Amino acid sequence: MWAKRIGITVLVCVASAGCAATPPGGPGSAARSNYVAMGDSFAAAPGVPELAAPRGCHKSTNNYPAVLARRLAAAAFHDVTCSGATTDDVVNREQRTDHGLIPRQLDMVGPPTDLITITIGANDVGLAGDAESCQVEAADPKPCAAAFVVNNVDRISSSIREQVPVWAAMIDQLRADAPRARIILVGYGIFVRPGGCFPDQPLLPNDANYLQAKVDELDDRQRQLAADKGVEFYDTRSLSAGHDMCAPPGERYVEGYVTEGNNVPLHPTALGAVALGNALTDYLVLSENR
User: Fold this and answer.
1) Assuming Cys at both sites, which of 95, 161, 194, 197 could form a disulfide with 89, CB separation 3.0 to 4.6 Å?
2) How far is 80 from 75, CA to CA, in rounded Å?
3) Catalytic: which of 16, 29, 41, 83?
């Protein structure tokens, strides 16, 4: 592992059509040999078989980074994604899990690293917990979205704005620690279609629209940040359209509140992890051969 003085992370964003920023003109060989995957549970894919070490991170051996690494035939692959991770856990501190402390993710990045993907940010701004709180459980349900806006101030939007400089600093740190690396921020994509699908998924129509708008806002902020910092953002919204929590179980890329099998609510399915890993592979190969 690589010793670090200060920590900072990066975000990974996914898309089928392409990324917001043009691939940097720096490192760019078609054969990426040292790949570090970073991020939270959207990258880790808890519930997708099989369970990878360390147990506390609840990550899969078949998450999108693992699919990408196999497709690229990466000579070295370090998956440090971890469920529950925030940017602080990635860059500044050990992460506390239900099976002990996990080293900060940045420790695995060093001069040999030539590819980094990161999906991070939802836990920074509380989106995961907020989405869980919107699940309808009462016989006479009340909308949840109004609880996030007080005195005309949207708490989630404010948190996203406040987090942008933190994400910018982590990108700078990644670039300093891995100057040869191609850095890709991978986004969260579409969790729920317009209006949702109540009662099949217990989320009221206006709440579905509000929560997806906040996910879009996070993705859009990271897309702009990537363009400003000269790294890449892979937007997954085109890829995930039609495969949200309201899709038939066999077509979902992300689970809803009502799940199938061992799938984890509001997280990628096995199908979604494979689709994203394959889409990222195609993007990397095509862009490096241009």
Assistant:
1) 95
2) 16
3) 41
Give 89-130 pLDDT, tens digit per residue. Answer: 999 999 999 899 999 999 999 999 999 999 999 999 999 899
CA atoms within 13 A on the CB side of 73: 3
Per-residue model confidence as pLDDT tens digits over 169-214: 999 999 999 999 999 999 999 999 999 999 999 999 999 999 999 9
State both tokens at 223. 């897309």
Count of other CB atoms within 10 angstroms of residue 152: 5
The active-site residue out of 58, 78, 243, 267 is: 267
Residue type, position 29, single letter: S
In angstroms, rounded to a whole number, what is the distance separating the alpha carbons of residues 230 and 158? Answer: 25
Higher-pLDDT residue of 4 and 215 is: 215
pLDDT at 15 exceeding the cut of 80: no
267 is catalytic: yes
Does the pLDDT value for residue 39 go beyond 70? yes
Six token digits for residue 114: 């030539």
Tokens at residue 7, please?
Answer: 């920590």
For the chain, which residues make up each domain, given as ranges? 34-288
Residue 159 annotated among the catalytic residues of the structure: no
Burial 10-43 (b: 16+ CB within 10 A, else e): bbbbbbbeebbbebeeebeeeebebbbbbbbbbb
Q: Identify the helix (H) or strand (E) that includes residue 193.
A: none
| Nearest residue to 91 via CA among 183, 164, 13, 167 | 167
288 exposed, middle or buried (CB, 10 Å; 0-12, 13-18, 19+)? middle
- How does strand 100-102 pair with strand 115-119? unpaired
Backbone angles phi, psi at 206, to 5 degrees: -65, -35
CA distance 133 to 124: 16
